[in-house]
Amino acid sequence: MTDANHVFIFDTTLRDAEQTPGASLNVAEKLEVAQQLARLKVDIIEAGFPVSSNEDFEAVRRIGQEVEGPVICGLARAVAKDIDRAGEALKDAPNPRIHTFVGTSEIHLKGQMRKGQEEVLKMAVAAVVQAKSYCDDVEFSPMDAARTEPGYLFEVIEATIAAGATTINIPDTVGYAVPEEFGTLIEQIIAKVPNSDQAIISVHCHDDLGMAVINTLAAIKGGARQAECTINGLGERAGNASLEEIVMALKTRQDHFGYTTHVVSQEIISTSRLVSRLMGIAVQPNKAIVGANAFAHSSGIHQDGVIKQRNTFEIMEPKDVGLDDTEIVLTARSGRAALRHRLQVLGHELEQEELNRVYEIFVELADKKKEVFDKDLIEIVGGDPGESTDHYELQYLHSVSGTGTVPTATVRLRIGDQTVQQSAWGDGPVDAAYAAIGLACGTDIHVENYAIRAITSGSQALGEVTVHLSRAEEKVRGRGVSTDVIEASAKAYVDALNRLVLKSVKEEHQTV
Predict the structure, then answer these.
(1) Which residues 6+ apart lie within 8 Å of 252 measured at CB?
(2) Which helix H or strand E contains 401, and what residues bound it?
(3) Most buried one in 290, 292, 464, 507, CB count within 10 A?
(4) Letter string b/e over residues 31-49, b meaning 16 or more CB atoms within 10 A of that residue's CB
(5) Using CA atoms, how far apart are residues 323 and 454, in angstroms rounded to an integer?
(6) Residue 205's closest CA among 221, 226, 184?
(7) Which residue, 287, 182, 285, is CA-closest to 244?
(8) What is the pLDDT of residues 168-200, one digit of tens each?
(9) Phi-psi region of 239 (alpha: psi -120 to 50; beta: other; left: phi over 0)
(10) What pTM was estimated for this model as a whole?
């Protein structure tokens, strides 16, 4: 039937995941996702529930005809009209499958079906026989199998295989199972159902207790050879087993599981992002495999290890799932090694002394921002310390402004060996800060020009201020960068003051 080590991947993103509240897709969108799933090379696509609506019928029909490669499956209850509708939708599909189901647990029999075991058994067999009249590939699911009395479950499985089912799916419909018992259940089905070798045993696990993926993997170890799952783990309630986690677990720990899939793992990220975009459901940042942080490192210790040897803190290659590379996220927790590495990538080779200078500025900025970006680093390195002195240093700045409030500012400057503090008011917080600095310096300086621009993106963007000052015949330009535009303005003013000092020193040397 198949390689004993091969696990079929049955993707139900277009059926079960689409039942996620707010995740409805139109026919064109379903077709787009199905084409991407074909590129991902899943084995089976459950395209929808044809009897549920005309749009779902049309989606199954078009996907069945237009998507090449995977088996295309339509879902149907163990009800004649459902099976007829699924058969009609798939009649022109080259690789069709009908998946029919009925509840078998005591809870479902009494609470929903209001039928006895014998009657439901007959329904199951009749559904398989009817589905078989439309296509050879028929899957049957005893819904809520994880809570079904084992003896009755084995009886239903044996009867539906005898009726022609080629795949028997064992659903943990409400996410109730735990790995040990679910794996054992699969082992018991294979051991105690006489004709179990005539069908592929599948599992469909929900994540109500957060165990959908591990239950699926336990079932595979127990003998299941088809895993039913969704992209990004979407689905009813807490969702389904996540396709990307199952596939990458089998691939990364092939030494432990010993099983393979046909999935092209490099298409995982593209598929995840497409589904997220079309369904309008964001992927949580810490989601395994496809989350924004899955291959991102912000801790200095982790960054140093990954830079030196990737497998110190990564068990998968980012390229294996379709990412370009590991992301080194520069934050206040990053060390010099990560900063040096990122600067080298940007084309800056710094000596230790210059790296230390840049690192101090970097840490100061990182304390104010959640993340420091490449443009931030370029601006930090782009400063020209050789064209200023440190005669003036801004040590403290406090400004107050607002509607109905007179803008005021207090500054503390180190001027040579002295510390001077002054306060002033102005037409705005920048004007007040400049007035206070002017008072502290005690010099007659005029602001010729002032300009501000955002040099990085986002709400925490760096602002760059350029100010032109004049004193008598001397004119200089100062530059300041900060996430706080008032601070950037003050830094630019102080930078210009230092350039005035430097200019005077150079002129004295030239005179001598």
Answers:
(1) 315, 316
(2) strand 392-402
(3) 290
(4) bebbbbbbebebbbbbbbb
(5) 29
(6) 226
(7) 287
(8) 999 999 999 999 999 999 999 999 999 999 999
(9) left
(10) 0.69
